[in-house]
Amino acid sequence: MADKRLNDSYWFIAIGYFNVILPTFLPRSSEITSTFWHRARSAKLQSIKAVKTPMAISRCREMARERGARARVWAQEDDHKQVGTFKRPTVVAVDNQVKETVPSSALMGLSLLGNLDATYQHATFPEIQLHTLTTGSRQRPGGMLLFGYTFVEKLWVSFGYDKNGFQEDVVNTFWTRVTEAVDEFLLT
Question: What is the pTM of this model?
Answer without folding.
Answer: 0.55
